[in-house]
Amino acid sequence: MAMIALSWDQVLAFRLERQFLSSRAPAGSLFDVASALCGVRAQLPSTAELSLWARVDGLERGEVGNAVETERTLVKTWIRNLLHVVPADDLALYVAALYPRPEGPGDAWLRMRGVTRKQYDAIVENVPRALDGRPRTREALADRLAELVGPDVRDAVLFSWGGVLKQSARFGDICFGPPRGRNVTFVRPDRWLGRKLDADPVEAGRELVRRYLAAYGPASAVDFGRWIENPTRGRELLRASADEVAEVEVAGSRLSALAVDLPALARRRRPRGVRLLPAFDQYVTGTRPREAFVPPDAMRRVYGQQGSVAPVLLVDGRVVGVWSHERRGDAIRVDVEPFQPLRPPVRKALAGEVDRLGAFLGGAPELGFPNGS
């Protein structure tokens, strides 16, 4: 069979559909959407909720937090070393597919975090002993680990945000509990969720490839390796799924897609839809190449220093501006800075999105253009 040649319009239209950005998922689809996206970024307190608001019809404010903190149907944890919320039913899959290397991190990784190899091994080994189903603040966890293995590990646990605890999350030994005031808490996932994190690593790896390509494909092995932050593991997982994957050509590049998705990719259509996406949204952070949907002269406005990613205005699959919002009394003020003047139909659709955001956040919507566009 001849290789299918695709345009970026076809690819972006496919991604919009699979990420629920051309039309929202019906009310009650919170968990299906979070699962299809391979988890939802939770870098900031509001990030996950606004990403899901952009995709799920009828989502209520506080619904995501309640699912994480009370119902325990979503889990907040580090996936791929980044904060996410994932369905509790999916956590075992990520642990099995992305299990850390048995030899542990390299010496440079340890030096950057101020941790010796002995301290790292002691912390990782004892985190499961230090946690149970009861939430512990980070300081309380550090104190408990110091009791178990010695006082020298306490500062190592408290050093930087995440640090060694991210590795424990990849082992499936730690996740976030409900906040205690301004302090985060941690729990042991199997006790918190009342289930073992048991999944077959081979099948988990194949399922991860399916989910990634279904939402973010077509993609290269380099793209996938960058996404899981392990290029070698990315190539291994794609090779293990070779019977389900086909090559396509996009603007001269050979990329991988799920064979079952070839008919959907080949459909002749243009990407459609206007969305306000929050900072660190999956569409902006998970898909590659960025040049396919972000203008070159706007890259630095979207992808800032120290890994920051701006909230963006997405029109027909491409980023056309950045935005911010704040509460002003009873109003929710949304300021949009488009890179180019917006066409009247886009402005009308944008106003509708601002109305939805105001209703979601509980304030009268106000739309402004600080640069006069």
Which structural class fits the helix and strand makeup?
alpha+beta
What's the rounded overall pLDDT mean?
Answer: 94
Low-confidence stretches: none
Whole-Å distance between the termini?
A: 49 Å
Report the sheet-strand fraction.
Answer: 15-25%
Q: Rough shape?
A: globular
Question: How many DSSP-defined strands?
Answer: 14
- CA radius of gyration is 21 Å
Query: How many H/I helical runs?
Result: 18
Sheet bearing the most strands, described? 5 strands, mixed
Biggest sheet strand order reads 10-11-12-13-14
Q: How helical, in percent, are the residues?
A: 40-55%
Oligomer: single chain
Number of domains: 3
What distinguishing features does this structure have?
373 residues, alpha+beta, 3 domains, five-stranded mixed β-sheet, 14 strands, globular
Q: Can you give a write-up of this model?
A:
The protein is 42% helix and 18% strand. It has a 5-stranded mixed beta sheet with strand order 10-11-12-13-14, covered by helices on one side. Strands 1-8-9 form a 3-stranded mixed beta sheet. The chain has a 3-stranded antiparallel beta sheet with strand order 2-4-3. The longest helix is centred in the C-terminal third of the chain and has 18 residues, at 344-361. It is of the alpha+beta class and 373 residues long. It has 3 domains: 4-90 and 199-266, no CATH class; 100-169, no CATH class; 294-368, no CATH class. Helix 5 (91-97) crosses helix 12 (201-216), helix 7 (117-130) crosses helix 10 and helix 13 packs across helix 14 (231-240). The protein is globular.
